Amino acid sequence: MKPVAIFRHARSEGPGYFADFLDANGIPWRLICIDAGDPLPVSAREFSGLVFMGGPMSVNDDLPWIPPVLERIREAMAADIPVLGHCLGGQLMAKALGGTVMQNPVKEIGWGEVMVADNAEARRWFGNTRQFLGFHWHGETFTIPQGATNILSSAHCAHQAFSLGKHLGLQCHIEMTQAMIREWCEIGAEEIASSIDSPGVQSLQAIQEGIEARVSQLNTVAASVYAKWIAGLNV
């Protein structure tokens, strides 16, 4: 089986629970560290699926790796190779499909309820789950690309995920581990302090309160979503 390609855009924003899930299911994967200068693959066809993680940059930044990444996403979708995006990764997918990425009305940092839409696509990905406590860290959002379906929303962000066939673009983070949350809180303490007046931003204490139970519940949601995504892999 060809490996799943996981694209990392920042050292602290690795695959997290998603890598644990792939390992538990015996699915090979290869980490491509764009932040460390790893070359981009020549073709999406080298892989059974493409996964894009988060990052502090904007997809609208003038970065040399963004145009070829967008091309790899389009190539994969045209070849029926599943694509999955987390936060920045979902924004990359949206832009590759002709959508727009712009400022969200408010910044979202921390835990927040995510509502599952009442449509067939949402039920296909999330089953009977109607809402869950997701993790957020973003200041931008995407429009829903033509042909895709909006399947998640939150109080502060109308577009938390879209699906298009085998492909899923997420604005929220479902890949989190306890270690990742603690590291992000350490790295992003100043950002939280400067944005704490935003209704979508939690304090460091609130983010880490009950972290073990919250991450465990999020992992359960993620496992169900990831199971549906890997069902479409090109073996």
Characterization of the model:
- The chain is α/β, with parallel strands linked by helices.
- The protein has one domain (4-230): Class I glutamine amidotransferase (GATase) domain (Rossmann fold, 3-Layer(aba) Sandwich).
- It is 34% helix and 27% strand.
- It contains 8 helices and 9 strands.
- A 9-stranded mixed β-sheet has the order 2-1-3-4-9-8-7-5-6, with helices on both faces.
- The longest helix is centred in the last third of the chain and has 20 residues, at 211-230.
- The radius of gyration is 16 Å and the shape is globular.
Summarize the helix and strand pattern as letters: EHEEHEHEHEEEEHHHH
Mind telling me the CATH class? Alpha Beta
Based on Cα principal axes, name the global outline.
globular
State the helical fraction: 25-40%
CATH architecture: 3-Layer(aba) Sandwich
Radius of gyration: 16 Å
List low-confidence stretches. none
How are strands sequenced across the largest beta sheet? 2-1-3-4-9-8-7-5-6
Please, what is the average pLDDT?
97
Oligomeric composition of the shown chains: single chain
First-to-last CA distance: 5 Å
CATH topology: Rossmann fold
CATH homologous superfamily (4th level) name: Class I glutamine amidotransferase (GATase) domain
Instruction: Count the DSSP helices.
Output: 8
Query: What's the count of strands?
Result: 9
Strand fraction band? Answer: 25-35%
How does the helix and strand content classify structurally? alpha/beta
Give the gist of this structure.
The chain has 235 residues and is of the alpha/beta class.
Features:
235 residues, alpha/beta, Rossmann fold, globular
